[in-house]
Amino acid sequence: MARVILLCCLLCNCLGASLQAESLKIGLNYPRTGNYKDEGLELRRGALLAVEQINRSGGVLDRPLELLSENTASRAEQARRNVERFASQGARMVFGGATSEEAIAAGQRARELGLLYFATLSYANEVTGAAGQRYLFRESNSAWMSARVLGEYLAIHLPGRHFHYILIDDAWGRSMESALRLATRSTDRARHGRTALPRGPLSREQYRSALAKAAASDADVLVLVLLGENLQRSMRLVHNMGLKQRMQIIVPNLSKSVVQQAGPLVMEGVIGTEAWTWDLPRQDNNPAGLQFVERYIREYREYPGSSSASAYSIVMQWADAVRRSGSLDSERLIGALEDHSYSLLKDQQRWRGFDHQNVQSIYAVRVRSRDEVMNDPFKQHYFEIIHRMAGDQAAPSLDDWQQERGEALHLQ
Fold first, then answer.
1. What are the backbone angles phi and psi of residue 388, rounded to the nearest 5°?
2. Distance CA 172, CA 120 (A)
3. What domains sit in the chain, N to C, each tagged with a CATH number?
4. Who's near 379: CB < 8 A, 6+ residues apart?
5. pTM higher than 0.85
6. DSSP string of 298-313?
7. Among 224, 261, 273, 274, which residue's Cα sits nearest to residue 244?
8. Burial 362-399 (b: 16+ CB within 10 A, else e)
9. Which residue positions does the secretion signal occupy (predicted)?
10. Interval 27-38: pLDDT, tens
11. H/E element holding 336?
């Protein structure tokens, strides 16, 4: 009889442990296909490393973390549907995306379902500006922040130049163009020309026509407000047309994957911005950042990019907020996140309370020469940091934010 009782107790303990070990699910919206698929791969890799690290440390609230992921193909409506799917599977938070339209649409649907949404790779000012809301946080920097650091660098090193802008006519393209024109004092469109390309698949002839217009101008600075495959294809044409010999090429938001796909010969000398580079933890002697880089190299045999770092940081920060608040309730998590400062993969960052923008240092970078890149063991040491700006200096002020918001002076 005693043996039966003992077996029953052991069985109950096992069942209890099983129930306790029910996973906490989080959902990753990422582009597995389409224009930004390379950035999407990096997002997923960074998220997986964070989930693995958290689970090795005991999980969240004594429960293992489980990553759900769905392809958005960089489409806003698909991102919305994915949020619904994640919610039906029991996800407690959703993050990701590669366009500002995705972030706004998916963030709004997450809010309707009571879920927090953390945006990645969404740079339009309106994400945390005009379209900002309580359930939406953005880890990536805004167009305003990139423009501020670039504007300061260009004012010092390339003053009085003529600009020409080529952009995709979407939320980020328009936002970035407007912010950079203000920062570089190139608002006069008669003097500083532009070509706005339509959203969606573009032909080689459309890229070539836009670049021919830039070449025929008197511009000595060419700004390509492009991302993903759009940028890769344009840069190959820039290289083949010899435009780099007479123009400084500016790509406001650079990424490791773009340089990797286009090639260092095509991209060398291009100036842009990054929120993080794999070499930054070494420069700043950041132990957690160094550990992340080492783990990523060990797992994937290449350097992590800023997209991986962003996804990793979001998962780690959400888990930290759950632990600090002792809750999975979205409203309590908002309270734990707002104005919370932390240092993880770089110097201090802060989830700003009034707009939920992550305020962090932003870096102007230049793509190294092909010879320098090829001398690196992984042939991926792409970026040289040429200028830094603190997050509080780069981010829009409360007054700027309220001007953009109009009557809605608080997040709803």
1. -130, 150
2. 13
3. 22-141+286-360 (3.40.50.2300), 144-274+362-394 (3.40.50.2300)
4. 264, 373
5. yes
6. HHHSS---HHHHHHHH
7. 224
8. bbbbbbbebeebeeeeeebbbbbeebebebeebbbeee
9. 1-21
10. 999 999 988 899
11. helix 330-337
